[in-house]
Amino acid sequence: MTGSVFFTEEVSNSKVAAICPSVAVARLQAARAREAMGLPASQVQVLTPGDTKPGRMLEPESHGIYRTMLWSHAKLGAIGALAGVLAYAVLRMQAVPMITQSPWLSLAALAFFGGIAGLMVGGLVTLRPDHDPYVMKVLGALRKGDSAVVVHALSAEQKREAERILAQAGNETTSTL
Q1: Who wins on pLDDT, 82 or 130?
Q2: Measured between alpha carbons, how far is 111 from 119 in angstroms, rounded to an integer?
Q3: What torsion, rounded to 10 degrees, do the Cα atoms 14, 19, 24, 25 define?
Q4: Do 137 and 177 contact (CB within 8 A), yes or no?
Q5: How sure is the predictor about 131, in pLDDT bands with cuts at 50, 70 and 90?
Q6: Which of 60, 64, 19 shows the shortest CA–CA distance to 43?
Q7: In 3D, which of 73, 55, 54 has the Cα closest to residue 7?
Q8: pLDDT confidence tier of residue 94, bands split at 50, 70 and 90
């Protein structure tokens, strides 16, 4: 498993961005973050208003997102179906009339709807709604002429440290979960 979360296949699940008033300040903050955290340049990047593809720098793992889509749906769909089967077992043990009168239909229906619920949660994981505020804030800042420092954290500890370092400098920060 490449991702640090069971349902995602991305290397960097968390991202932290700091909005800086100029390119020079952004480069200084990026160097400071790289040095303080011992990170390679690929993990700490500077986005400037002139960048042609800032979205690729904000979310560089398009192949990881595709794998996340496949695996989150598969894993969560299976977990949902299993939850439906477990619900059937509990209801059967309680002798619920609807379940005991048509056991096979009840089992199929609960497994099916559990699987559908799991697939819907898999869709939510794929959409990554926590990334929208992060992306929109950085793109909005770039449109206004500001620059940004983006840290692609590989762990929760790296994320917390990046937030602390970038916020210490008085930068407005935003992050994903």
Answers
A1: 82
A2: 12
A3: -90
A4: no
A5: confident
A6: 60
A7: 73
A8: very high
Q: 72, 7 in Cβ contact below 8 A?
A: yes
Residue 161: name the closest of 11, 38, 5, 28 by CA: 38
* Pair 1, 126: CB distance under 8 Å: no
Edge-to-edge, what's the strand order for the sheet holding 14-20?
44-47, 147-153, 14-20, 172-175
Please name the amino acid found at residue 154: L
Q: How many helices (H) and strands (E) in the chain?
A: 7, 4
DSSP-derived secondary structure letter, 4:
S
Say how far apart CA 107 and CA 164 lie, in whole Å: 51
pLDDT of residue 146 exceeding 60: yes
Residue appearing with tokens 């100029």 = 22
Give yes or no for residue 5 having a pLDDT over 70: no
DSSP 79-104: HHHHHHHHHHHHHHHTT-HHHHHSHH
DSSP state of 53: -
**What's residue 1's pLDDT?**
37
Q: Please give the model's pTM, rounded to 2 decimal places.
A: 0.72
Position 72: which residue type? S
Above 70 in pLDDT, residue 56? yes
Write down the pLDDT at residue 129.
80
